[in-house]
Every structure is written in C-alpha cells, then in structure tokens.
C-alpha cells in the first residue's frame, strides 16, 4: 500500500511539473508570412491587460489570420467590469511598449493619458519618444467624461499630436459630445483621428455621414464593444443591411476592423470567446448570413442556440481595404 501511495504521488507530481513546464514555455507566434487566409488582417482596436496575457491574444491572432493588433493602453479608471484587473496609466503604458518590444511584428502600441493630469503632455511626449505609435483617449466616453473635450490644456495635446503626426483613437459618444468633438477637428484639420464604434452614431446615419463628409481625415472602426453593445450592434446591422452597407461603401477607405475584446486573465475572456467575437465581425462584413453565439453582461453564453444574423456581404476589394490597407494611412507619416 505504501509503495502504491508513493507511485501515485510521484505520478501526480510529474503531471504537475509537466503542466508548469508547459506554461513556462513562451508561445512562439507565427510569422505574418505563415498566416493562412485570404487577408492579413490588422486589428485596429484591442486592449491588453498585461504582457502576461499577450500569448492568449497571439494564439487567437494566429488562428484567425490577424497579422497585427493595435494594443491600446487602459487603466483601472477607464476599464471596468470583467476588465477591472487593469492597473494605473503609466504601468499599462509600459506594458504595451514591452509587449510590442517582444513581438514587434505583431503589435502596434498606443499609450493613454489621464486627461485630468496637469503633466499629461510631458508624459505623452516621453511615451512617444520611447516608441508609442499613437494615443488612446477615453475622455469622450460617457462614463469617463469630466470636462469639455476642447478644454484649453487638451487642445495643446491635440496640437502636439497634429504636429508630430501621432494618431489618436478617440472614444467619443457622438450623441452627447459631438459639438465639442467637432471643435477639436475644426481647430486641428490635419489631426489623424479614429472615432471607434461608428463614433456611436450608427443609429444616426445622417449625422454620421455629415461628420464623415466634413472631416476627411476622420476614420472609424466597426467594433461595438462589450457583449451587450455587440449584441445590439450586430442586431442593428442585421435589421438594416442596406443602411450599413451603404455607409461602408460610401467610405470604404475610412473603415477599420477592430475587435475590442479587452484581453485579461479572467477565465471567461477565453480564446474561445475571442475567436467567436472575431468570427462574428468577419461574418458581419463578409457573409450574407451567419450564426453568432451571444454572451451576456457577465460573459456567459446566453443560449445554446446561436442567433441567426444577416451580414453585409461586402465585395473583396472593400474587405481588403477594411482588413489591411486602411490602417496603413494611420501609421504612415505624411510628407
């Protein structure tokens, strides 16, 4: 009996040691040239809690043929819910640069700033000097809005970004803060801005078109955000295929693909969840119809029966612009 117990203990130890050994081995992502699929997708909107969870994202990228991902810094203030494991601004900024240093072919780092910090511009200058390729601003988000987007000290930040061709991914609720946002764009016509999630104007197509027509350097992305917003967004597209197809075909060179999963160590932010989100956004753009596994606010599957949705069935040349070409204008310096 004693010998049997010893053998069982040794076997358990071996299994545990093997498991720890596997976890300690860094994942070696594919080269972009090794990715399969018709497109080498650039994901223009993603968040990464830390370097430690980068491998989860890289595995998903490899399986879904996503060549590069823009990793946007966040903070405990601006990232909540299941994402509340984020740290402070400076720490997550450093993590984005470190992830890009380790996997330079696959990650494009954007830092963030605390817009209420008197030293924000000096800090942003230092982060750009250290290798950041852009900045993410949350101040147009309804939950994080503290003062006008065109406040004097923020206009200095925009002027710096315009002069040095630093792109801004600027979350702006177009239904609430459009006047302030437009004053920023009017004052800085050469500023490269991505206003994600259709600038939260997907319910107001006339306003969206007016803004896009007025500010030719403005881009958007096709992501919707957390599961509740994504479920509503996919349903809205499905119910209004002609409207959304018309919007995208009107501005095919100004649409970006994004996922906005917010990658953390939480077990519900699994690779399965991430691949389903990616697959839904690909299908929304490229298929006539598709099935989507919807998640609830706590990232649990809502139903065992996937929801049927109508897709936009965009032509391949437009898909290539959205997936690959359009983001290059964001990071390519102008003469």
Topology:
Layout: H1 2-24, E1 41-47, H2 54-63, E2 66-72, H3 89-102, E3 107-112, H4 120-129, E4 134-140, H5 152-163, E5 168-172, H6 178-187, E6 193-194, H7 205-214, E7 218-221, H8 227-239, H9 241-250, E8 255-256, H10 271-286, E9 289-292, E10 307-310, H11 316-325, H12 328-331
Parallel strand pairs: 1-2, 2-3, 3-4, 4-5, 5-6, 6-7, 7-8
Antiparallel strand pairs: 9-10
Overview of the molecule:
- By secondary structure, this protein is α/β, with parallel strands linked by helices.
- The chain has a single domain (34-331), classed as TIM Barrel, CATH 3.20.20.
- The protein has helices spanning 2-24, 54-63, 89-102, 120-129, 152-163, 178-187, 205-214, 227-239, 241-250, 271-286, 316-325, 328-331; strands spanning 41-47, 66-72, 107-112, 134-140, 168-172, 193-194, 218-221, 255-256, 289-292, 307-310.
- Strand 4, helix 5 and strand 5 (168-172) form a beta-alpha-beta unit.
- The chain is globular.
- It starts with a helix and ends with a helix.
- Residues 1-24 have low confidence and may be disordered.
